[in-house]
Amino acid sequence: MTVTVLGGGISGLAAAHYLRTVNPSSRIVVLEASHRLGGWIDSTKHSDGVVYEGGPRTLRVVGNAGANTLALAESLGLRDKVRSVHYGEPSAKNRMIKVNGSLHKLPNSLKTALTKLPPFSKPLALSAISDLRAKKVLADDESLFSFVNRRFGSDVARYAIDPLARGVFAGNARDLSVKALAKRMHEVEQKHGSVLKGFIKDRKNAEKPDPGLAKSDLVQQARKEKWAVWSLQDGLETLVKTLAEHLEQGGVEIRRSSPVLGIQGSQGHLVVQTNGEEIQTERVISCLPANHLSQVNPVRFSV
Ligand SMILES: Cc1cc2nc3c(=O)[nH]c(=O)nc-3n(C[C@H](O)[C@H](O)[C@H](O)COP(=O)(O)OP(=O)(O)OC[C@H]3O[C@@H](n4cnc5c(N)ncnc54)[C@H](O)[C@@H]3O)c2cc1C
After folding, report:
1. Domains (ranges, CATH) in the chain?
2. Ligand 1 centroid vs 288 CA: distance in angstroms?
3. Residues sharing a CB contact under 8 Å with residue 6, sequence separation 6 or more, in sequence order
4. I need a surface site. Which of 37, 62, 185, 272 has the fewest CB within 10 A?
5. Contacts of 275 (CB under 8 A, 6+ apart)
6. H/E element holding 45?
7. What's the CA dihedral at 71, 1, 27, 75 to 10 degrees?
8. What is the mean pLDDT of residues 2-30?
9. Which positions fall inside the Amine oxidase domain (predicted)?
10. pLDDT band at residue 297, thresholds of 50, 70 and 90?
């Protein structure tokens, strides 16, 4: 069986990796439009040794997704290259935001959450009361900003969520979907009428830790040492390069400078069109950003 993975960013490379793990005999082709792999992950090391990240700079450990990425790095032999930041360290504890030309430290302890600190107009902890009081609004989806504004008040939306969305997603919280980014927060509000009440009442439906991931030595170490975030020596692109090498050694065909132009159905299989070439394939996994996938000629099935 041939499987074609569209996009050679970290999603496409990871998809090819797990596919190879579960299906060692299939032919896997990764098509990447650019001459380089990694998509947004783009690390540059300058002559003074400092690494600059053009996109993501750190990865979190929390949740199964966070643990899984760390376990992946370990399985690729990157353990010695992992660089961690622990919760107690200043760079993890101190989040600064710039408002009207001045820098402000975001509250990071119970004491500071109970104190009125600029730019907030009241102690941050009082936002919890807003959430308990605010009426539920039945909504299939809305922007992250509007959701937080409605539940926790405008201070939290403007001074915490807006900069957070810019830092994490390089996006505007007013345009980003709450359901896509904070699905559980949205779900518990819709079910229980309040985010905080919902998290308490709905504990049994919270994500359960995957016991398989707890076997990873690095995940165990990260949990024990309370890592906040981690990266790799020479930047996150080390993960991309190592993963790509591993895939190519495992027989995965990675085609750079090969934009996907169209996908068609033909006589029981799919045909993926790229630069002057057509790849017959049984399955396609798209790891393209939605706005790029929408540029690919629509799938037409003639079977
Ligand atoms: C500025 C910024 C900072 C971020 N910081 C963090 C962070 O610190 N921590 C964190 O966890 N996340 C962070 N993120 C999010 C993270 O970078 C992304 O979630 C992740 O890199 C997305 O990977 P991807 O493979 O899904 O998409 P992309 O990285 O966008 O990769 C998509 C790939 O598809 C290719 N492609 C596009 N069109 C075609 C086509 N027609 N044919 C073939 N290939 C095509 C592109 O060239 C690209 O290589 C950040 C994002 C940004 C933008």
Report:
1. 2-57+235-301 (3.50.50.60), 108-205 (1.10.3110.10)
2. 9
3. 12, 31, 260, 272, 284, 285, 286, 287, 288, 293, 296
4. 62
5. 257, 258, 259, 261
6. strand 43-45
7. 10
8. 97
9. 10-297
10. confident
Beta bridge partners of residue 51, listed in sequence order: 45
CB-ligand 1 contact for 235 (6 Å cutoff): no
How far apart (Å, rounded) are the C-alpha atoms in residues 295 and 284? 16
Helices and strands (DSSP H and E) totals, the chain:
14, 15
Say what the ipTM of the complex is: 0.99
Ligand 1 within 6 A of 144 CB?
no
160-177 pLDDT, tens digit per residue, is 999 999 988 889 999 999
d(CA 3, CA 17): 12
Count CA within 13 A, CB hemisphere, residue 1. 12
Percent residues over pLDDT 70 in the chain: 98
Lowest-confidence pick of 25-39, 150-164, 178-192, 286-300: 286-300
Residue closest by Cα to atom 6 of ligand 1: 56
Give the distance (Å) from ligand 1 centre to CA of residue 13: 11
Above pLDDT 90, what percent of the chain?
A: 89
